[in-house]
Amino acid sequence: MFTGIVQGIAVVEDVTAATGLSTFAIRLPDDSADGVNIGASVAINGTCLTVTRQAGNTLFFDAMQETLRLTTLGDLEPGHSINFERAARIGDEIGGHLLSGHIHTTASVIEILRPENNVTIWFEVPEQWARYIFPKGYIAINGASLTIGEVARNRFNIHLIPETLRATTFGAVEEGMKVNIEIDSQTQTIVDTLARLGYDSQASKTTNLGLASS
């Protein structure tokens, strides 16, 4: 389980591809890997991966073909920067919202606006996931817990302050890039429950705007 509060930016040192499997060597900032055990979970751009080996601040992870297909991890190359978060512990402050580290889909960056002192980024998701996206609701993008701004069909935006841009890889995002998306589990449960009760997707959105962002 994760909180969606990115703990820093790590760097991909090496990617070793084999049949149906890729092994990533990822170097965390100094002291960020202290106390990591083999088998521990770490979110890499929001994707929960298991530590298989450690060499100082460099952690090694294996990703199966299905993970590579469903996420952006298959596009990672040596030198790329990623967001990371170590698994939450009982008693940790939950500053974002609870995440599983299981990616639902990817989104494309379609527009970046840079008004003074902040950045607004527009994303586009596959149509089938738009039903879970609400203004002021939660969403996790590359492992960061964020509040949704505006929504227009299967497009939505987020507003980022300078601290978020500094502490995550969003400061280097470019149009055309793809990002990992984890839908808020509470929102998904509400929408799916209402659908089973016979409400259409538009009615679900109208009825539950407040619930989705609670």
UniProtKB/TrEMBL annotation:
EC number: 2.5.1.9
GO BP term, pick one: riboflavin biosynthetic process
Domain of life: Bacteria
Domain Lumazine-binding: 1-97, 98-194
Keyword check for rRNA-binding: no
Chemical reaction(s) catalysed: 2 6,7-dimethyl-8-(1-D-ribityl)lumazine + H(+) = 5-amino-6-(D-ribitylamino)uracil + riboflavin
Keyword Transferase included in the entry's annotation: yes
Enzyme class, first EC level, given as a word: transferase
Lumazine-binding repeats: 1-97, 98-194
GO molecular function, one term: riboflavin synthase activity
Signal peptide extent: none
Pathway: Cofactor biosynthesis; riboflavin biosynthesis; riboflavin from 2-hydroxy-3-oxobutyl phosphate and 5-amino-6-(D-ribitylamino)uracil: step 2/2
Keywords: Repeat, Riboflavin biosynthesis, Transferase
PANTHER family with a match to the protein in the record: RIBOFLAVIN SYNTHASE, RIBOFLAVIN SYNTHASE ALPHA CHAIN
NCBIfam families, alphabetized: PRK09289.1 (NF006767), PRK13020.1 (NF009566), ribE (TIGR00187)
UniProt function note: Catalyzes the dismutation of two molecules of 6,7-dimethyl-8-ribityllumazine, resulting in the formation of riboflavin and 5-amino-6-(D-ribitylamino)uracil.
Protein name: Riboflavin synthase
Source organism of this protein record: Marinobacter antarcticus
